[in-house]
Specification:
Blueprint: H1 7-15, H2 27-33, E1 40-44, H3 50-57, E2 61-66, H4 69-80, E3 88-92, E4 105-111, H5 117-129, E5 131-142, H6 163-168, E6 175-188, E7 194-206, E8 237-241, H7 247-259, H8 268-271, H9 282-291, E9 297-300, E10 314-319, H10 322-334, H11 338-345, H12 360-369, H13 381-393, E11 400-404, H14 405-410, H15 412-422, H16 432-438, H17 441-446, H18 448-451, H19 473-477, H20 480-491, H21 496-503
Parallel strand pairs: 1-2, 1-4, 2-3, 4-5, 8-9, 8-10, 10-11
Antiparallel strand pairs: 5-7, 6-7
Helix pairs in contact: 10-12
Length: 504
């Protein structure tokens, strides 16, 4: 008799029937993955391939792994009848003995892999290690409560596990548990009667990078995965800021230091492209960067844990008081042509009209209390604090520099000179007055058409992009109690010394 759970065992099982499973994707996979943007997926224990094929039809690049050569051949044959065969890499291997070459994935899924405790723990630990930052781990199995029902389950309690057990095995600081539950669904007992069976479902997202690829941040119009494999050059500058926090200001400063003239050779958006933005095809952005003979300075709104930190590059992070940033973001929302954005990105028109927008005060109070994950909403208060805290933790690194937005407004000359020294750029003294003048907020506002990041025409007004540029706007909107509440909130999200610096 074949060794239980080995390759020969499963080949015998699959060979004993024309089809062992339904041919339909697992309900748990469809439920938890249908709304995710596609990326790279690992389907562990893929069987006859229904899950892998379903993922591929939704745009995923899938590595489908199983012990059984018989099952894999059926999966290949099924995929060959569709137009997704090139999106699936079928691999026969024992993941407990050989996981070499399996790089980090945006999704790792294991459906109903019922193993004894010791090999199960090793397998699931290995699978968790294959999830990249920002990626999802989805494990679904038969819940132990099914043993109390007269349903087709192996009479081996050691093969069953609860979602709570799985969740407890993950390091809390590295993972966001999105679901850990016994999820009910309709099943049939041995007498043909409909009963409720339960699946142990663990859905967890890795929130911290663990070596390898950076965290992947995605939204409807951005994808930090476009940084993967970026070909850095010596001297590259990466400008990493939250929205409305001084991005364009730092881009302009870098342009003035690199070209040493207020008369830039091209628009700022062409000189310093926004790599993550989906409005412009990646190959076009990369071609533009490859053709640049000058020192490159690239824009991103991604935190540094989401971009490759390369020793050849320098990383500038702008920090603005979060309340001021939020007020500016609110007004920027009124300046965006949402219909145009949907057309450019390829999103459908909403079926229901947008609700009326709240007044600034109510919106800001709600923004302060929003508990959205930084991975889902980078411009939320948790997202801003994560971005800045991550950079703050790197501030002792020689190629990372934090710049405070308020200092650009109050001491622009000193700040520009400090950045030039840090970047090892020599500027003749006679040029400083005209470069500093060109970098002033008023000067940039007067040149909004050349400086505003609006390559696809999604802004209603480029001049409105440079609204005020001052500090204290957020505090003006709030009551004393609301302001105190804000400080309580951020104190739980970021180190005290960073907050003193940020608010100073």
């Amino acid at each position: 008799m074949s060794e239980p759970f080995g390759a020969a065992f499963w080949n015998e099982r699959y060979s004993g029937a024309d089809r062992l499973w339904s041919g339909q994707p697992n309900e748990g996979l469809v439920c938890d993955v249908a709304d995710l943007p596609p990326g790279r997926a690992l389907d562990a224990g893929c069987g006859e391939g229904a899950d892998a094929i379903w993922l591929a039809t939704r745009g995923w690049q899938v590595t489908a792994v199983d012990l059984s050569a018989v099952a894999l051949q059926r999966g290949r044959e099924h995929a060959d009848k569709s137009d997704v065969a090139t999106r699936i890499d079928w691999q026969q291997r024992d993941l407990l003995a050989d996981a070499a070459g399996l790089n980090e994935f945006d999704l790792v899924t294991a459906q109903f892999m019922q193993l004894p405790e010791e090999p199960r723990q090793r397998l699931f630990t290995m699978l968790a290690d294959r999830v990249r930052g920002g990626g999802l781990l989805l494990i679904v199995g038969h819940d132990p409560s099914d043993l109390e029902l007269d349903v087709a389950r192996p009479p081996m309690p050691e093969l069953f596990y609860s979602a709570a057990e799985l969740a407890a095995s993950l390091e809390p600081r590295d993972w966001e548990i999105q679901a850990a539950q016994a999820r009910g669904r309709d099943g049939t007992d041995r007498h043909g009667k409909t009963v409720t069976v339960h699946d142990a479902v663990l859905r967890a997202r890795r929130i911290r990078v663990r070596g390898g690829l950076p965290v992947r941040y995605r939204s409807v119009d951005e994808d930090s995965g476009r940084w993967d494999g970026f070909p850095f050059r010596d001297g590259d500058v990466v400008i990493s800021t939250r929205s409305k926090s001084g991005t364009t200001w730092l881009q302009m400063i870098c342009a003035l230091l690199v070209f040493q003239t207020p008369e830039l050779p091209e628009s700022l958006t062409r000189l310093s492209p926004w790599l993550d933005m989906l409005l412009t095809p990646l190959d076009r952005v990369m071609s533009r960067l490859e053709a640049q003979p000058h020192r490159r300075f690239v824009k991103t709104h991604t935190p540094l844990d989401g971009v490759p930190v390369d020793p050849r590059a320098s990383y500038l992070v702008a920090a603005r008081h979060p309340l001021d940033m939020a007020v500016s973001l609110y007004h920027q929302g009124d300046n965006l042509d949402r219909k145009k954005m949907r057309e450019v990105i390829g999103l459908p028109e909403p079926t229901d009209p947008a609700p009326p927008r709240r007044e600034l005060h109510d919106w800001l109070v709600s923004w302060i209390d929003d508990d959205a994950s930084h991975l889902d909403s980078m411009d939320s208060l948790p997202g801003v604090m994560w971005h800045l805290s991550d950079a703050w933790a790197r501030r002792e690194q020689q190629n990372v520099r934090l710049v405070r937005y308020s200092d650009l407004g109050h001491n622009l000359d000193d700040e520009m000179r400090a950045i030039a020294q840090w970047l090892h750029i020599d500027v003749p003294e006679s040029l400083w007055p005209q470069l500093v003048a060109a970098a002033s907020f008023d000067s940039m506002r007067s040149n909004a058409d050349r400086l505003t990041p609006n390559p696809s025409g999604v802004m209603k007004s480029t001049a409105a992009f440079f609204r005020r540029g001052s500090s204290g706007n957020g505090a003006e909107v709030l009551t004393d109690d609301e302001l105190a509440h804000y400080h309580v909130r951020v104190a739980a999200m970021a180190p005290a010394d960073m907050l003193d610096w940020l608010h100073g």
